[in-house]
């Protein structure tokens, strides 16, 4: 191994590989490796102007030959003669690459296996499939990584595909119970295995290895370091901290206005009303169908007069029937398939996805959306299908302006959000807030509210969303929400569904964004039009307003909405905090109580900020549950009863409320 120092970086070269470890923020390193003569120069998620302190670098010899170390504050990395990297926090080992190949093997276990730490496998005529392995730590817990549809909050033992799919969001930042955070700074399609025998990160196609690693005493410090180099969310406007009203789908201008007028009559305060898909003529026209939306500006004016902001759905799909399709095709503004036809999306049309990684595409689409939406009074955009959703997730068959799909697909939703964020930023000084179904590392700084996708209306899915929300916050994405009641509903009249809806609403009151949405069956409402295009032909679900589910349920949800409004001054402080240091609003217990061992093992409760402990009901017909209260005094917000912490209590959970305790 040949070692040199270049500015704030330790450079190590061996057998054609160049390894670069450099200071990158407080107590942090960026680590890169390549088999090419130069690095690509892409910073990916590391967009912020981070301090790069002068490191302490020493080179010497161990029993196997020349070795070197680099220190940045509390973090140290050593590299031995075989290129094996070991990481230390305050001189205590916490992570080491997995290497079992004779000379250079640090482990005292078998060394004749010929497993190496970093492996480049060449694609014929192209770049590399890359993998890096690390030793596993017994007893370690892993969190973050975005959103996966399973009930596991602790990801140790899980295999996670690094792929963007509907309801699955790859944000590859992991927080360890051992006091470190690890960003896989690579948007390639791949996989990570947090195994008991070793951890392995894989990029299916890449030119280089790139990750960032930091240390701190507790998760709060790790998140602060991480968002310091990837960015933080702006301030959420206070007038969006209440109810977002949505359904699949309001089909006409009059339907939207009638809901808003009814809400005002019944005393239901709506902050935002959402116009869902197929209000348009065809996908890719990005405009209202005039037959059903004759005067969108007048509609927006009336809604604004009621204090309601207006959001409209925009899909990245372009139908061959669209007035923009062939112009965009000729200009190279659409995704390209490596093989086969132009089509890569087939829901309600023969469609191709726009290439948001192309700056020319972003400007073209914004110009259309500005004219047809923004200039008419639309305040916000619902950027649905933002993974992008594909007819088949054949990532190896997609080519972007940015590169092959296998190399860069995971960053697509970030470019899609930038399409709107960057252009809207030029036109207003107000905070930009848009709704997306997907994101990637660093997306928090682009005004993204991310929701958890088209999940089913089941208690199992509700439980999964709690795990997802905790881990999204720990991956640096604080603006997160769900479809209250789940998206896929068979029968709104089913009493089990209505109980689920109430429990989900009660959970959402103590979530970052309170948004009701869903595709509510049964599907027995006639379509408005016999055409095969336009705003009237596609189905709509059953009514999904708070008053749609009977008087008893309406009263419960209206009372819960009133509770949300009481909390808004507090919620505002949480949004201010996340803008300041990246802290999530929805927090694992251990985030607030890292010294409490029990909190590292409890995942069916959470903290909403630093004051409220929330114990959601995640099962049907459950009206009492056990709640662990950490050390301190806790007041049940429903009856004012005070409990001593450090104990498990039994808490009543009538259908009207879930157990919530305020730290006093």
How would you describe this structure to a colleague?
By secondary structure, this protein is α+β, with helices and mostly antiparallel strands. It is 21% helix and 29% strand. It contains eleven helices and 41 strands. Strands 1-2-3-4-18-15-14-12 form an eight-stranded antiparallel β-sheet, covered by helices on one side. Strand 35 and strand 36 (612-614) form a beta hairpin. Helix 9 runs parallel beside helix 10 (551-581). The longest helix is centred in the C-terminal third of the chain and has 31 residues, at 551-581. The chain is globular and about 80 Å long. The model has no long low-confidence stretch (mean pLDDT 97).
Structural class by SSE content: alpha+beta
Total helical elements = 11
β-sheet strand percentage: 25-35%
Shape: globular
Strand order within the widest sheet?
Answer: 1-2-3-4-18-15-14-12
Number of strands: 41
Helix content: 10-25%
Unreliable stretches (pLDDT < 50, length at least 5) are none
Report the major sheet: 8 strands, antiparallel
| Cα Rg | 26 Å
- What is the typical, i.e. mean, pLDDT? 97
Query: What is the rounded distance between the termini?
Result: 57 Å
């Amino acid at each position: 191994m040949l070692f040199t120092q270049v500015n704030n970086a330790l450079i190590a070269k061996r057998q054609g590989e160049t390894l670069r470890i450099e200071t990158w923020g407080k107590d942090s390193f960026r680590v890169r490796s390549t088999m090419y003569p130069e690095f690509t120069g892409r910073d990916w998620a590391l967009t912020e102007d981070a301090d790069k302190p002068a490191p302490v670098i020493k080179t010497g010899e161990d029993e196997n030959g020349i070795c070197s170390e680099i220190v940045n504050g509390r973090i140290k990395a050593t590299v031995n003669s075989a290129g094996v990297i070991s990481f230390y926090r305050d001189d205590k080992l916490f992570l080491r690459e997995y290497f079992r190949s004779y000379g250079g093997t640090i482990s005292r276990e078998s060394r004749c296996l010929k497993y190496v730490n970093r492996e480049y496998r060449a694609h014929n005529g192209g770049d590399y499939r890359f993998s890096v392995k690390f030793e596993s730590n017994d007893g370690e817990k892993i969190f973050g990584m975005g959103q996966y549809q399973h009930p596991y909050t602790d990801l140790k033992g899980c295999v996670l595909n690094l792929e963007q799919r509907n309801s699955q969001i790859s944000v590859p930042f992991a927080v360890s119970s051992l006091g470190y955070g690890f960003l896989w700074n690579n948007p390639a399609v791949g996989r990570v295995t947090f195994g008991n025998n070793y951890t392995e990160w894989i990029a299916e196609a890449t030119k280089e290895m790139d990750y960032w690693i930091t240390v701190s005493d507790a998760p709060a410090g790790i998140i602060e370091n991480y968002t310091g180099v990837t960015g933080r969310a702006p301030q959420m406007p206070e007038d969006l901290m209440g109810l977002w009203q949505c359904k699949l789908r309001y089909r006409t201008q009059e339907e939207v206005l009638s809901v808003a007028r009814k809400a005002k009559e019944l005393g239901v305060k709506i902050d935002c009303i959402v116009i869902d898909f197929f209000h348009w003529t065809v996908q890719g026209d990005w405009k209202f169908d005039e037959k059903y939306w004759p005067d969108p500006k007048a509609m927006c004016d009336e809604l604004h007069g009621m204090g309601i902001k207006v959001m409209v759905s925009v899909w990245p799909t372009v139908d061959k029937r669209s007035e923009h399709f062939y112009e965009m095709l000729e200009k190279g503004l659409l995704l390209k398939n490596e093989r086969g036809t132009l089509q890569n999306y087939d829901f309600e049309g023969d469609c191709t996805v726009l290439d948001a990684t192309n700056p020319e595409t972003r400007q073209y689409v914004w110009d259309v959306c500005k004219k047809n939406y923004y200039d008419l009074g639309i305040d916000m955009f619902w950027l649905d299908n933002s993974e992008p959703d594909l007819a088949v997730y054949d990532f190896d068959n997609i080519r972007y302006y940015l590169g092959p799909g296998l190399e860069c697909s995971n960053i697509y939703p970030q470019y899609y959000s930038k399409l709107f964020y960057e252009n809207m930023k030029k036109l207003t000084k107000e905070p930009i807030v848009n709704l997306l179904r997907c994101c990637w590392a660093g997306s928090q700084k682009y005004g993204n509210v991310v929701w958890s996708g088209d999940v089913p209306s089941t208690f199992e899915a509700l439980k999964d969303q709690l795990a997802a929300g905790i881990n999204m916050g720990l991956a640096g994405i604080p603006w997160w929400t769900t479809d209250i009641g789940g998206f896929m509903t068979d029968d709104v009249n089913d009493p089990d569904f209505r109980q689920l809806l109430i429990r989900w609403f009660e959970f959402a009151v103590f979530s970052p964004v309170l948004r009701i949405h869903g595709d509510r069956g049964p599907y027995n409402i006639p379509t408005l039009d016999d055409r095969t295009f336009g705003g009237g032909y596609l189905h709509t679900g059953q009514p999904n307003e708070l008053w749609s589910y009977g008087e008893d349920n309406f009263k419960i949800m209206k009372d819960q909405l009133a509770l949300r409004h009481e909390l808004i001054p507090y919620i505002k402080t949480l949004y201010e905090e996340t803008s300041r240091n990246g802290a999530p609003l929805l927090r694992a217990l251990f985030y607030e109580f890292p010294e409490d061992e029990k909190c590292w093992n409890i995942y069916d409760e959470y903290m909403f900020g630093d004051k409220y402990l929330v114990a959601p009901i995640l099962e049907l017909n459950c009206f009492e549950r056990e709640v662990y209260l950490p050390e301190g005094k806790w007041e049940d917000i429903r009856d004012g009863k005070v409990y001593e912490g450090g104990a498990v209590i039994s808490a009543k959970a009538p259908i009207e409320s879930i157990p919530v305790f305020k730290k006093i």
